[in-house]
Design brief:
- The chain is an all-alpha fold.
- The chain folds into two domains: 56 residues, Orthogonal Bundle (Arc Repressor Mutant, subunit A), CATH 1.10.10.60; 143 residues, Tetracycline Repressor, domain 2, CATH 1.10.357.
- Helices cover 70% and strands 0% of the residues.
- The protein contains nine helices and no strands.
- The longest helix is centred in the middle third of the chain and has 28 residues.
- The radius of gyration is 20 Å and the shape is elongated.
- The N and C termini lie far apart (73 Å).
Protein backbone atom coordinates (compact mmCIF):
# COMPACT_ATOMS: atom_id res chain seq x y z
CA UNK A 1 0.00 0.00 0.00
CA UNK A 2 1.44 3.35 -1.05
CA UNK A 3 2.25 5.85 1.66
CA UNK A 4 -0.21 8.73 1.82
CA UNK A 5 0.75 11.90 3.60
CA UNK A 6 -1.83 12.97 6.16
CA UNK A 7 -3.24 16.48 6.46
CA UNK A 8 -1.56 16.79 9.86
CA UNK A 9 1.80 15.90 8.34
CA UNK A 10 1.33 18.37 5.47
CA UNK A 11 0.49 21.10 7.95
CA UNK A 12 3.54 20.29 10.07
CA UNK A 13 5.81 20.40 7.01
CA UNK A 14 4.30 23.70 5.85
CA UNK A 15 4.85 25.21 9.30
CA UNK A 16 8.47 24.04 9.35
CA UNK A 17 9.06 25.49 5.90
CA UNK A 18 7.61 28.82 6.98
CA UNK A 19 9.82 28.91 10.09
CA UNK A 20 12.85 28.24 7.91
CA UNK A 21 11.91 31.08 5.57
CA UNK A 22 11.21 33.48 8.43
CA UNK A 23 14.53 32.75 10.14
CA UNK A 24 16.48 32.84 6.87
CA UNK A 25 14.93 36.20 6.01
CA UNK A 26 15.95 37.60 9.39
CA UNK A 27 19.50 36.28 9.05
CA UNK A 28 19.86 38.00 5.68
CA UNK A 29 18.32 41.22 7.04
CA UNK A 30 20.83 41.16 9.91
CA UNK A 31 24.02 40.30 8.06
CA UNK A 32 23.46 39.70 4.34
CA UNK A 33 23.46 36.55 2.22
CA UNK A 34 27.17 35.81 2.54
CA UNK A 35 27.06 35.74 6.33
CA UNK A 36 23.81 33.79 6.64
CA UNK A 37 24.61 30.19 7.64
CA UNK A 38 22.33 27.22 7.12
CA UNK A 39 23.29 25.87 10.54
CA UNK A 40 22.26 29.15 12.18
CA UNK A 41 18.99 29.23 10.26
CA UNK A 42 18.24 25.64 11.28
CA UNK A 43 18.95 26.36 14.95
CA UNK A 44 16.74 29.44 14.96
CA UNK A 45 13.95 27.60 13.13
CA UNK A 46 14.14 24.70 15.56
CA UNK A 47 14.84 22.10 12.87
CA UNK A 48 17.73 19.84 11.89
CA UNK A 49 20.02 21.07 9.13
CA UNK A 50 18.91 18.15 6.98
CA UNK A 51 15.31 19.31 7.27
CA UNK A 52 16.19 22.47 5.38
CA UNK A 53 17.44 20.38 2.47
CA UNK A 54 14.19 18.43 2.41
CA UNK A 55 12.40 21.71 1.67
CA UNK A 56 15.09 23.32 -0.51
CA UNK A 57 17.51 21.49 -2.79
CA UNK A 58 20.41 23.74 -1.85
CA UNK A 59 21.37 26.82 0.09
CA UNK A 60 21.21 28.74 -3.18
CA UNK A 61 17.59 27.66 -3.70
CA UNK A 62 16.70 28.78 -0.17
CA UNK A 63 18.36 32.15 -0.68
CA UNK A 64 16.73 32.61 -4.08
CA UNK A 65 13.36 32.12 -2.39
CA UNK A 66 14.28 34.63 0.33
CA UNK A 67 15.29 37.08 -2.38
CA UNK A 68 11.95 36.63 -4.15
CA UNK A 69 10.00 37.18 -0.95
CA UNK A 70 12.01 40.23 0.10
CA UNK A 71 11.96 41.90 -3.30
CA UNK A 72 8.26 41.31 -3.84
CA UNK A 73 7.61 43.10 -0.57
CA UNK A 74 9.67 46.10 -1.70
CA UNK A 75 8.22 46.20 -5.22
CA UNK A 76 4.69 46.03 -3.81
CA UNK A 77 5.40 49.07 -1.61
CA UNK A 78 6.55 51.08 -4.63
CA UNK A 79 3.53 49.93 -6.64
CA UNK A 80 1.25 51.08 -3.82
CA UNK A 81 2.84 54.53 -3.87
CA UNK A 82 2.40 54.74 -7.64
CA UNK A 83 -1.29 53.92 -7.23
CA UNK A 84 -2.00 56.93 -5.00
CA UNK A 85 -3.78 60.13 -6.04
CA UNK A 86 -2.12 62.91 -8.00
CA UNK A 87 -0.45 63.43 -11.35
CA UNK A 88 2.37 61.22 -12.54
CA UNK A 89 5.14 63.43 -11.11
CA UNK A 90 3.57 63.38 -7.64
CA UNK A 91 3.11 59.62 -7.78
CA UNK A 92 6.63 59.04 -9.04
CA UNK A 93 8.07 61.22 -6.30
CA UNK A 94 6.06 59.30 -3.69
CA UNK A 95 7.27 55.99 -5.10
CA UNK A 96 10.91 57.07 -5.23
CA UNK A 97 10.65 58.34 -1.66
CA UNK A 98 9.17 55.01 -0.58
CA UNK A 99 12.04 53.16 -2.26
CA UNK A 100 14.72 55.38 -0.69
CA UNK A 101 13.29 55.58 2.81
CA UNK A 102 12.79 51.83 3.10
CA UNK A 103 16.36 51.25 1.95
CA UNK A 104 17.66 53.67 4.59
CA UNK A 105 15.64 51.98 7.32
CA UNK A 106 17.07 48.57 6.39
CA UNK A 107 20.52 49.25 4.91
CA UNK A 108 21.79 45.67 5.28
CA UNK A 109 18.80 44.22 3.46
CA UNK A 110 18.99 46.99 0.85
CA UNK A 111 22.66 46.14 0.24
CA UNK A 112 21.80 42.44 0.03
CA UNK A 113 19.04 43.00 -2.52
CA UNK A 114 20.79 45.57 -4.68
CA UNK A 115 24.55 45.17 -4.58
CA UNK A 116 25.90 42.30 -2.47
CA UNK A 117 27.84 39.66 -4.47
CA UNK A 118 25.54 36.64 -4.61
CA UNK A 119 25.25 33.18 -6.16
CA UNK A 120 24.03 32.91 -9.79
CA UNK A 121 20.54 31.73 -8.83
CA UNK A 122 20.09 34.78 -6.63
CA UNK A 123 21.56 37.04 -9.32
CA UNK A 124 18.83 35.85 -11.69
CA UNK A 125 16.23 37.00 -9.16
CA UNK A 126 18.05 40.32 -8.76
CA UNK A 127 17.69 41.04 -12.47
CA UNK A 128 13.95 40.36 -12.23
CA UNK A 129 13.82 42.73 -9.23
CA UNK A 130 15.44 45.58 -11.10
CA UNK A 131 13.26 44.99 -14.13
CA UNK A 132 10.14 45.07 -11.94
CA UNK A 133 11.09 48.50 -10.61
CA UNK A 134 12.01 49.77 -14.07
CA UNK A 135 8.69 48.60 -15.52
CA UNK A 136 6.72 50.37 -12.79
CA UNK A 137 8.65 53.61 -13.33
CA UNK A 138 8.39 53.32 -17.10
CA UNK A 139 4.61 53.04 -16.91
CA UNK A 140 4.38 56.09 -14.65
CA UNK A 141 6.68 58.12 -16.90
CA UNK A 142 4.60 57.19 -19.95
CA UNK A 143 1.46 58.29 -18.11
CA UNK A 144 3.17 61.55 -17.21
CA UNK A 145 4.00 62.23 -20.85
CA UNK A 146 0.37 61.60 -21.78
CA UNK A 147 -0.77 63.96 -19.02
CA UNK A 148 1.72 66.61 -20.13
CA UNK A 149 3.45 66.91 -16.76
CA UNK A 150 6.60 65.07 -17.95
CA UNK A 151 8.41 66.09 -21.16
CA UNK A 152 8.62 63.63 -24.04
CA UNK A 153 11.52 61.21 -23.58
CA UNK A 154 12.49 57.54 -23.80
CA UNK A 155 10.45 56.24 -20.86
CA UNK A 156 12.29 52.91 -20.78
CA UNK A 157 15.72 54.51 -20.65
CA UNK A 158 14.63 57.08 -18.08
CA UNK A 159 13.21 54.37 -15.84
CA UNK A 160 16.50 52.45 -15.81
CA UNK A 161 18.31 55.69 -14.97
CA UNK A 162 16.04 56.14 -11.96
CA UNK A 163 16.76 52.63 -10.69
CA UNK A 164 20.49 53.12 -11.16
CA UNK A 165 20.59 56.55 -9.54
CA UNK A 166 18.79 55.41 -6.41
CA UNK A 167 20.76 52.17 -6.10
CA UNK A 168 24.14 53.89 -6.41
CA UNK A 169 23.14 56.72 -4.08
CA UNK A 170 21.88 54.40 -1.36
CA UNK A 171 24.04 51.27 -1.46
CA UNK A 172 26.80 51.80 -4.02
CA UNK A 173 30.44 52.20 -2.96
CA UNK A 174 30.14 55.99 -3.20
CA UNK A 175 27.04 56.15 -1.03
CA UNK A 176 27.39 58.03 2.29
CA UNK A 177 25.11 55.41 3.80
CA UNK A 178 27.72 52.64 3.51
CA UNK A 179 29.70 54.00 6.45
CA UNK A 180 26.58 54.71 8.47
CA UNK A 181 25.93 52.15 11.17
CA UNK A 182 22.25 53.09 11.29
CA UNK A 183 20.05 50.00 11.35
CA UNK A 184 16.47 50.58 12.38
CA UNK A 185 13.53 48.16 12.45
CA UNK A 186 11.39 48.03 9.33
CA UNK A 187 8.59 50.08 10.86
CA UNK A 188 6.90 52.97 9.16
CA UNK A 189 8.41 56.17 10.57
CA UNK A 190 6.29 59.09 11.64
CA UNK A 191 7.99 61.38 9.13
CA UNK A 192 11.09 60.79 7.02
CA UNK A 193 10.43 63.75 4.71
CA UNK A 194 13.29 65.78 6.17
CA UNK A 195 16.07 63.28 5.49
CA UNK A 196 18.61 65.33 3.50
CA UNK A 197 19.93 62.35 1.53
CA UNK A 198 16.46 61.25 0.44
CA UNK A 199 15.53 64.80 -0.52
CA UNK A 200 18.75 65.21 -2.53
CA UNK A 201 18.11 61.96 -4.42
CA UNK A 202 14.52 62.91 -5.17
CA UNK A 203 15.52 66.38 -6.33
CA UNK A 204 18.07 64.93 -8.75
CA UNK A 205 15.67 62.32 -10.11
CA UNK A 206 12.71 64.63 -10.55
CA UNK A 207 14.78 67.38 -12.15
CA UNK A 208 16.17 64.83 -14.57
CA UNK A 209 12.69 63.65 -15.47
CA UNK A 210 10.94 67.00 -15.74
CA UNK A 211 13.78 69.40 -16.55
CA UNK A 212 12.47 71.62 -13.77
CA UNK A 213 14.17 72.54 -10.48
CA UNK A 214 12.18 71.30 -7.49
Amino acid sequence: MAYRETEKMRKRKAEARQRILTCAYQCVADSGFRSARVTTIATQAGVATGTIYRHFESKEDLFAEIFRLATQREVDKVAEALATQGDATARLEAALRQFAERALRGPVMAWSLIAEPVDPKVEVERLKYRKAYAELFEQAISEGMEEGCIPQQDAGQSSTCLVGAIAESLVGPLSPVQNDARQEPENEPENDNNDPLVNAILRFCMQGLTGTRR
